[in-house]
Specification:
With 664 residues, the chain is of the alpha+beta class. 48% of the residues lie in helices and 10% in strands. It is built from 27 helices and nine strands.
């Protein structure tokens, strides 16, 4: 039986490959994930071509908001603040070092490897005659009796060589020896096998040899690596595909299933539900009641000491992702009311506005310097952003109870909050002129993202509202949407920390398609996150003229086919802002399902009756169908000849009447 030995990898042949494999397994997916995240950030930053609307106003929790925002998204301490980047730098440096070790280390040939062709110095395709000829020559050359006086070492070397020559010859000619060689790789049968333990040489030899280092190395491989893999797998199993914890998803689903339809849903209801999220508990080590208290404090603009305020803002910063998950789950139940209330609750938490008792002035409370609802005067009948931009600075100061010097800044921020104006919305099927039954349709919307200060309708050219159908647009109707810039949250709320992690959930509008008949969702909730914000900077005149106005294209893909029965189906298309108050828009939308238009029969592809003397004609005669007789064929031939003669008679006539008319 072959003997198996385990030795330390003293020649450094095993451990570099083992280590570099482990590094690659960890570094490659981490790098891909990190690069994708950085790319999405940079592309978002590059495409947001509108200036940031800065404000001199500082909320009571400004320092804490800046601290939390800066640690996530400002880029401060770029190298040492980003743990993932630091890990990648160290990891890839180690990867390159191990690669260098592999490249510069010479591999030592295994003494147990037996190659008869190399020993006899012949080609592997040599014939038996050639093998015998070479064997005789080498036997005479290395036979111990044929050599003169040699030293003991030289004799031993010659004897060893002679034995190898004999084994090589037998391995290629003797049946039994050849069978051992083919089966075990050696003419003597199974050989001892040595495995190198993947421990670097410096751990078992030299000045660095230490039981502690060996223990650390083994702990990394036997304990740390399995722990990381197990933790990753547990995380995968404990979260949904949208990144929501399964316990949180279960709590949301349970609420939807068991909720009393007669019970009204408001912002406090959403906050109570969100407070039960496992993500918030694990991030803060707080109970659901304590989390709910912090969220209600944010809603009512209640501020705490620095430590507790940071804790509150941390909880609030995680809410948009949870709201997004709640909306996804509610959409599967077609619960439009819960979706709308959840989105509204997110806006109220971002702007720190409690809608109870101030719904008529909530749009004003999101403006800088308007810290309390008691500031807003009831004497001035202005409640919306659009109306506020029409009054003077003095009237603005009187309206919101601020110094006149800050009124211009309030006007500027109010004018920079984007609102939507829909120019055209219709159901479309690529390549079709009408919406046909049981087809894959989408909603195509042409809209303007504009300022509340811009009044009236812009004179937009019809060309901007039409989309030419090309091969590319038919293949991918949504490519035109992806080519538009990413929307940015402008201006940012002074009470909410915008981070890299939550920015994707607070920019743009949620789009809901509901059935007018029962008010339920007709499809999943989508997001409008791409479009042009350049219209915000246009003057009223430039906006009205329409030449510089940029039209945004939005398309909502419908997951369900169109109804099977022709008719008119009424829907409501809603755009719900994810961050701002007063930026929502609802429009009615009618789907007119029609049968596809019939193609007129041009007679070009008519199939003639078969001839009576053909097989097809015989079969048609048996079925009682019409066939073409020999007389019919002669008539057709004569008719064709007449046509040819008539055509030849007119070949010399100039038919370019259009050119003659143009000359006249």
């Amino acid at each position: 039986m072959a003997r198996v030995e385990y030795d330390y990898d003293e020649s450094a042949e095993t451990w570099p490959y083992f280590v570099i494999t482990l590094l690659a397994v960890v570094l490659i997916p981490t790098t891909i994930s990190y690069v994708n995240k950085i790319w999405s950030r940079s592309s978002s930053g590059r495409k947001a071509q509108v200036k940031k609307y800065a404000t001199t106003f500082k909320a009571s929790n400004h320092d804490q908001v800046s601290q939390l925002t800066g640690s996530k998204g400002s880029g401060k301490h770029f190298l040492f603040g980003d743990k993932t980047l630091l890990f990648l730098i160290v990891g890839w440096s180690l990867f390159l070092y191990v690669g260098y070790v592999i490249h510069t280390t010479e591999l030592v040939a295994d003494a147990n490897v037996f190659d008869p062709w190399e020993i006899l110095n012949i080609d592997s395709s040599a014939t038996e005659k050639q093998i015998k000829s070479v064997y005789r020559k080498l036997s005479l050359k290395f036979h111990p009796d044929k050599l003169g006086s040699l030293s003991d070492d030289e004799k031993e070397e010659v004897e060893t060589k002679f034995v190898l020559i004999n084994k090589a010859y037998k391995a290629l000619t003797d049946e039994i020896t050849k069978e051992n060689f083919l089966k075990y790789g050696h003419p003597d049968g199974p050989q001892s096998v040595t495995h190198g333990i993947a421990l670097p040489k410096f751990l078992v030899d030299g000045n660095f040899a230490s039981p502690v280092l060996v223990f650390i190395y083994i702990s990394m491989i036997a304990i740390a690596l399995p722990f990381v893999v197990a933790k990753w797998w547990d995380n995968v199993r404990s979260h949904t595909r949208h990144g929501l914890h399964i316990k949180t998803a279960a709590a949301f689903s349970s609420y939807i299933i068991n909720n009393n339809p007669a019970k009204l849903i408001n912002t406090e209801t959403i906050i109570e539900l969100i407070s039960k999220a496992e993500e918030l508990k694990s991030a803060t080590n707080l109970s659901s009641e304590e989390i709910e208290e912090l969220l209600l404090a944010q809603l009512n603009r209640v501020f705490f000491d620095s430590k507790k305020e940071l804790q509150k803002l941390k909880v609030v910063s995680l809410v948009p992702k949870l709201i997004n998950g709640l909306v996804d789950i509610a959409a599967t139940f077609r619960n439009s009311e819960l979706c709308v209330k959840a989105i509204e609750a997110q806006r109220y938490l971002i702007q720190a506005v409690n809608p109870t008792g101030c719904s008529d002035i909530e749009q004003l409370l999101q403006l800088p310097f308007v810290e309390k609802k008691d500031q807003v005067s009831k004497k001035v009948p202005v409640h919306t952003l659009g109306k506020l931009t029409t009054i003077s600075d003095g009237e603005i100061a009187d309206l919101v109870g601020i110094d006149k010097k800050n009124a211009a800044e309030v006007r500027s921020v109010a004018s920079s909050i984007p609102v939507i104006k829909v120019l055209k919305a219709e159901f479309k099927i690529p390549g079709e002129s009408v919406v046909t039954p049981q087809s894959n349709a989408h909603i195509a919307v042409k809209l303007l993202i504009k300022s509340p200060a811009q009044k009236g309708l812009a004179k937009v050219d019809d060309e901007k509202l039409e989309e030419k159908e090309t091969f590319e647009s038919l293949r991918d109707p949504f490519s035109i949407v992806q080519d538009q810039p990413v929307l940015a949250c402008l201006p940012e709320s002074p009470y909410f920390p915008v981070t890299v992690e939550n920015s994707e959930y607070i920019n743009g509008w949620a789009v809901l398609l509901t059935v007018q008949r029962d008010g339920k969702l007709a499809d999943s909730v989508d997001l409008l996150t791409r479009g042009s914000l350049s219209n915000l900077e246009l003057s009223q005149k430039a906006y009205s003229d329409g030449e510089e106005v940029q039209v945004t294209t939005y398309k909502l893909k419908l997951n369900s086919p169109t109804p099977p029965t022709p008719g008119e189906y009424h829907f409501k298309l809603s755009f719900k802002s994810l961050s701002y108050l007063g930026s929502d828009l609802d429009i009615p939308l009618v789907m007119k399902v029609q049968e596809p238009p019939k193609v007129e029969d041009a007679g070009v592809y008519d199939i003639e009756d078969p001839e009576e003397d053909s097989i097809a004609g015989a079969m048609a005669t048996l079925r009682g169908e019409k066939v073409k007789t020999a007389d019919d064929y002669d008539d057709d031939s004569a008719s064709d000849e007449e046509d040819l003669e008539i055509e030849s008679d007119f070949t010399d006539i100039n038919t370019d009447t259009e050119d003659e008319d143009e000359d006249k």
